[in-house]
Structure formats: structure tokens, C-alpha cells
Amino acid sequence: MDKLDGSDHYSKTTDEPPPSLLTIVLDTHPSAWALLAPTLPFSKALAVLLVFINAHLACNNSNQVCVIAAHPHRAQFLYPSPPHSADSSSNATPNGTTNPPLPSASEANFYRPFRLLQSTLLTSLSHLLSPAQNPSTLPSTPSVALSGALTLALTYTNRLLTSLSTANPSSTTSTTNDAYSANPSSHALTSRILIVSLTGSLSSQYIPLTNTIFACQRLSIPIDVAKLAGDAVFLEQASDATRGTYLHIDHPKGLLQYLMMAFLPDQGSRRFLMSPGNVGVDFRAACFCHRKVVDLGFVCSVCLSIFCSPPEDGVCLTCGTQLKLGNYGQKPVVVARKKKKRKNKLNGDAETGSGAATPVR
After folding, report:
1. Is 64 helix (H, G, I), strand (E, B) or coil?
2. CA distance 209 to 225
3. Cis peptide before 80 (omega within 30 of 0)
4. Could you give the C-alpha distances from 259 to 51, 52, 245, 277, 295, in angstroms and in order?
5. 171-198: per-residue pLDDT in tens?
6. Residues 25, 42: Cα–Cα separation, whole Å
């Protein structure tokens, strides 16, 4: 009867790929970009990033993007704009962005979603980098709030997944790393995180950064890293644990080519491509006492905290457990070497190499 009345289209499922969410964590440390300015100015890098985002949105009409700034001492949404700034504007839209002013004659043929993204991103970024928002102690800060930016990325992804699951109960969300490779079209949303990093010194954020890596691994969210400068110990571990793509960009002038060729394909497309990978991953950890990267340390048997040296009085600084270090630190006992026993001589004569006597002539 379904074929007779033409209602079989209600039971058919679409084979279109699910929408993809691209969350970009942009390192906005002013001192780091000042050092990179002779090779890649920040304005040119931002223009390249906008071209890459537009290419992602053009792949699928349902694709979405989120840009988060990892700034010293804080992390902030650049796109969509924060709710407080959207509410204070009279041209606020339901998705948290603000309507830009009417386009000029030169922008008449500008695709409206691209223009909305560009205007919102530039406005938020100019407000973030304004002198009033940056204290005088900012240049002395060696790192950015990368763990906070990843936390914001996870919360935004979870909000979209919750809203899509409510709107479409038939779609499912994955909890294993092999879910996308099995059937990526059965999910409501595929998400990934791209980190554009310049700074290092992330050892002080080792614990929260490890928690975010485990959360991304649980939600099957790969972390891609485009490393322009700085140390990359923990970012290599994040990309390797979440099955993402890590790429150290040796020539920053070709940033657009790196982004388009290595980071534009989503999880469904990467099943048919050979993604660039890092050959040697540094799996060193940071100690919990001094936040230093160590090769050899002491691990608490209860909470697995890492220390570069034995804690004072043998008490774990994290859980307070009394640890037994045994005879650690004592000098080893030197055992006297036993003397070898000499072989007995026969008839008081010296030993010869053979038992036969020397012939007499």
C-alpha cells in the first residue's frame, strides 16, 4: 500500500553525510605573533584562516564552525559572539551573532554567511586585542589558556549534540573511536578541533589538558594541531591519543596549503585518505610538584600522581597517602669478591699444558 499511495518516501533515509562542526582554537598571544611577523604577519594569517573556514562551510550547507581565542589568562569565543555582547546589540540574531551593517557596493556579491562570519570574527578579535583588555604584565606570560579554550570547545560541541539529538531522536552519538569509521552517516553531527598554536610552556596546564584529551577521546573528537612555533610535547600526545593530525609547519608562508590539504577533510573523508602523521611522539609527562617535564619520576600508587623527586616525609601532595620509599637513597652494600681456589700441584712440580713428559735426547 505504501507504493500505491506514494508514501514510501517517509521510510527512506538519506545518504547525505552528516553536518560537520569545526572548532578552531586560535593562539592569540601578542608576543608570539610579533616574533613570527617577519615570516607570517597576524593579519595575513587571519585572512588565510578565513579562507579555510569558508572552504569548510562551502563543503556542506549544514556545516558549522566555532572559533575560540586562547589568550593569556583567559579563553574567549570569537565566533559565535558571546551571548552578553549579542544581547547588548539591537541587531542580535537567534544563533548568538550580530547582523553586520548593510554591505557596500563592493560587497554586494559577498555570500552572506561568509560576510557575517568575517565581520563577527574581526569585531570580537579587535575587542580582545584592544589595549584596555590587555594588562601590562601580558608580555611576560609565556603560555596561553589552552586548556580553557578546549573546555569551551567541548561545551559548545555538547550543546550542539544535545540540541540535534532532541530535534532528531533517530540519530545517535558515538562513544567509541571506531564509530565514525563504521558508519559516519548515522550520527547527527561529526565534530573535530583544530589548534593553531605558537606558544609552548604548557607544563603548568598538564592536569586540565590531560582531562580534556580524555574527554575528546571518549567523545571521538579528534584534535588536529597546526604547530607554527614553540614546544609541542603535550600537543603531540593530544593528537596521537585522539587520532588527530599533527603537523609542524616549517614554512609558515604556505599556511593556506597546509590547512587545505591536511586539515580540511573531516572524519568521513579521512577514511579514504592518507593523513600526515608524526613519526616520533614524545610521551613525557609533567611532574605535579614543580610542573616540569621529566623523563624519570616517582608515581603515587594510589592516585598516580607524578613527582620529579620523592615528596617530603613521603606524603603524596595530591591524595595525602603515606608512601613507602623503602631503602631509596641509601648507598648500596659492597660485597667482597670471593677469591678463586688454585689448583693443586702434582708432586711439587709446576703444571704444564699437557700430561706428557718432555722427551730426552
Report:
1. strand
2. 14
3. yes
4. 10, 7, 11, 14, 33
5. 554 444 444 444 544 567 899 999 999 9
6. 15
